[in-house]
Every structure is written in C-alpha cells, then in structure tokens.
Amino acid sequence: MGTELSKIRMEPREPLASEVSRRLIDYLMSGEVQPGERIPSERQLTELLGVNRPTVREAIKSLGFLGLVEIRQSSGTYFRGPDSDVLYRLFELGLVLGERGAEDLLRARAELEVVVAGLAATERDEAGVELLRERLAAMRDAPDAEFAEADTAFHAAIADVCGNVVLRDMLRGIRAMIQRGWIHRTVPTRSRRVAYDDHVPIFEAIERGDGAAARQAMADHMTGATERLRAALAGGDV
C-alpha cells in the first residue's frame, strides 16, 4: 500500500481509538488514498493495526464526523478528501493533539497572549482603549453565568487592538479549541474579584502604552490560567 498501516503499540496514556484515528489521518493525508477512493475495510484495518473491531469502528465514526470519510452502508468507507478547514477541526476535536500536543497548545496560547498584549500597548488608539475599558467593565458587572464569556471578550478585544490580524486569528482559533475541549471540565478556584483584578494591570499598561508592563501583566495572568487549564487536561480539579 505504500504508506503502511502497521500494528499499534499500546500507549497507556492515550485512548486506543485516538491512536487509531491518528494513524488513519496520517495514512489518508499521505496522498496514498485519493479523494473518492475506498479505504480498507474494518476487518482489514483490524488486522493491519492489530486492534479490535469496535476500536476501528469508533475511529472511523470520528473521521466521518470530521468529514474526512463517507460511510456508505453495504459499500464501505470512502475518503472524501480534506476541505479548507479540516485541519482546524482535527485539532479542535483533539484527535491529533495527544497529551504532548495539548500541552504545547496551552503554551502557545500563553506565549501569544503575552505577545499580543505588548503589541496592543504600542498600537492602541483612543477607540481601542475605550473598547478595552468597556470590556473590563463588562467583566466586573457580568452575572456569574456570563463572567467567563466576558473574560474571553476582553482577551479578544486585546487581540483586535494589537493590529495584527494573523495573531488575532491564531488566538481566536486556539481559544475555540480550548473552550470547546476543556473549559467545561474546569471548576472555579478563584473568586470573581481576584479573576477580575488579574486583568486590571493588563488594561492599565495598554492604556498608558507600556508594552513591557503589558507583557508582564499578561504573563502573570497566563501563569495561573495555564495551570488551571493544564489541570483540566489532566482531569483534575482546577
């Protein structure tokens, strides 16, 4: 077959269906299978990968949900080909991240937030400062059920003010992955007041145009935020 599908070695910290999904994604993206072609059957994949049939079936269903394959009853499973945002959706659903990739995602988010805060401080104008002031006030006044959304909106506004659409969109995508994948697994460990107070020095540094202070304030905030998300990833309390 060119790109070989070989037996999977068991990795205790990663669900087997995720490893099967990852292996199939690599195989489909290698160019060995053309859009519209049928992929090996469940029975063949079971033999090639050395895993049980329910695991293969679960992995194929995941790829079908992503839109990578089409499952036709009594006919087989066919590669649909990647569309323009398939890789985003792969990461979003955590199928190609794994433990190390998820950790790297959290670190990338933290580093980007710091960079964007520094840029926002140097690029802000009166309208940008006013937008951040409004978003900070919205955090302060938000009902408990809406506080997390107000928090996210404040960070999104910083990215808007920074003036770099590439960094803005990168952060937007990373936040979407984190929110859909992990936020629902977190529980609050700080009072709203403490959470709000974390953001005040970020705003003040951006308002006065101090890039170094904005980066430091954001770095201080992201240290705690990343630890809580890391705990959520591990399945613990945060």
Strands of the widest sheet, in order across it, are: 1-2
Write the element-wise H/E pattern from the N-terminal end onward: HHHEEHHHHHHH
Gyration radius over CA:
22 Å
Binned, the helix content reads 55-70%
Structural class based on helices, strands and sheet pairing: mainly alpha
| Count of alpha and pi helical runs | 10
Which overall shape is indicated by the principal axes computed on the Cα atoms? elongated
Give average pLDDT, whole number: 82
The counted number of beta strands is 2
Stretches with pLDDT under 50, minimum 5 residues:
183-187
Which percent band covers the strand fraction?
A: under 5%
Largest sheet: 2 strands, antiparallel
Describe the model:
There is one protein chain. This protein has ten helices and two strands. With 238 residues, the chain is mainly alpha-helical. Strands 1-2 form a two-stranded antiparallel ribbon. Helix 9 packs antiparallel against helix 10.
Question: Which properties best describe this structure?
Answer:
mainly alpha
Brief characterization of the structure:
The protein is 66% helix and 3% strand.
Task: Detail the topology: elements first, then pairings.
Elements: H1 16-29, H2 42-49, H3 53-66, E1 69-72, E2 76-79, H4 86-92, H5 98-123, H6 126-141, H7 147-161, H8 165-181, H9 192-207, H10 211-234
Antiparallel strand pairs: 1-2
